[in-house]
Design brief:
There is one protein chain. With 305 residues, the chain is α+β, with helices and mostly antiparallel strands. It folds into 2 domains: 205 residues, Up-down Bundle (Alpha-lytic protease prodomain-like), CATH 1.20.1510.10; 86 residues, Cation efflux protein, cytoplasmic domain (Alpha-Beta Plaits). 68% of the residues lie in helices and 10% in strands. It contains 8 helices and 4 strands. It has a 4-stranded mixed beta sheet with strand order 3-2-1-4, covered by helices on one side. It is elongated, with a radius of gyration of 25 Å. Keywords: Cell membrane, Membrane, Transmembrane, Transmembrane helix, Transport. It comes from Devosia enhydra.
């Protein structure tokens, strides 16, 4: 059985991870900016510019995680969980802006190439910054998925894209210095821009799905249906099962058909049992059950076993 973190603890952990992402982003930006300045490489400058976006997206993720942790109130009775999807949209937009800026810099560098200087210390610093990003991106993605945080997952994906871009840039800068073909530096920057743009598209696509109340994936839905069937003793069937994901919360609602002679108390006990099992198995489950008499049976959906 999957262990579920209490909501408050989960929110606190997500907040600490988001704050850590901001600290790492600022540190990596400083390291990459120095490497770009020391070598004069357009590609390394583009890579540093992408790290500016990392800092901005880390701030957006931090704000969204704090907002999503707020409890539901009269104005937003279903909670603030979707704030993280708005953050992911903002992150995707900033990624697209970064791609445009990098592309413009690559265009300028291709027609006005400047020599790239070999600075072993600066290159080593850029490699160190990339290792920081790689380790943090892996941690951020793992924790984001565990805590069901779209903002953290989006931030992780962008950081991993940054890692891939930087590795390509470092290899390319070495080739530029070895061959003397300075336009290659600008071409590499353009490839970084394309990679950044693709990352932004992926983030936007997933966040829009969350804002549109996308259902849980088929495998999870199947598990939910089987759990309902196995723990609804005394009921006849369950139908019209619907799910939607909102950050760390999974909303589940369905109709439960019970015998017409069953008392309200007995029907309520069945509902309590199903809700308890769903919450044990599905992290952040919010369950709504509409009880119906047996003449409302559709003879379809979930047959109780």
């Amino acid at each position: 059985m999957k262990t579920q973190l209490p909501h408050n603890r989960s929110a606190d952990l997500a907040l600490r991870v988001a704050m850590g992402s901001l600290v790492v982003g600022v540190a990596v930006l400083g390291l990459k900016a120095y490497a770009a300045w020391a070598t004069g490489s357009v590609a390394l400058y583009a890579d540093a510019l992408e790290s500016v976006v990392n800092v901005v997206t880390a701030v957006a993720a931090l704000v969204a995680v704090r907002l999503a942790a707020r409890p539901a109130d009269a104005g937003l009775p279903y909670g603030y969980h979707k704030a993280e999807y708005f953050s992911a949209v903002i992150i995707g937009m900033f990624i697209a802006v970064a791609a445009l800026l990098v592309g413009l810099e690559a265009w300028r560098g291709f027609f006005n190439p400047e020599p790239v200087e070999w600075q072993a210390g600066a290159i080593a610093i850029s490699v160190l910054a990339t290792l920081f990003n790689l380790g943090w991106a892996a941690y951020l993605g793992r924790e984001g998925r565990r805590l069901r945080s779209p903002s953290l997952v989006a931030d992780s994906r962008h950081l991993m894209t940054d890692v891939v871009s930087t590795i390509g840039v470092l290899v390319g800068v070495g080739l530029v210095i070895a061959t003397g073909w300075h336009q290659l530096d600008a071409i590499l920057a353009a490839l970084v821009a394309v990679n950044i743009l693709w990352s932004g598209w992926q983030v936007l696509r997933e966040s829009v799905g969350g804002l549109m109340d996308v259902a849980v994936e088929p495998a999870r839905l199947g598990a939910i249906r089987r759990l309902i069937a196995a723990h609804a003793d005394g009921a006849i069937e369950a139908h019209d099962v619907r799910t939607r994901q909102a950050g760390r919360i999974t909303f589940i609602d369905f109709h439960l058909v019970v015998p017409g002679s069953m008392t309200v108390e007995a029907a309520h006990a069945i509902c309590d049992n199903i809700e308890a099992k769903l919450r044990e198995t599905v992290d952040g489950a919010q369950v709504t059950i509409h009880v119906e008499p047996e003449n409302k049976a559709k003879h379809a959906g979930i047959v109780v076993v």
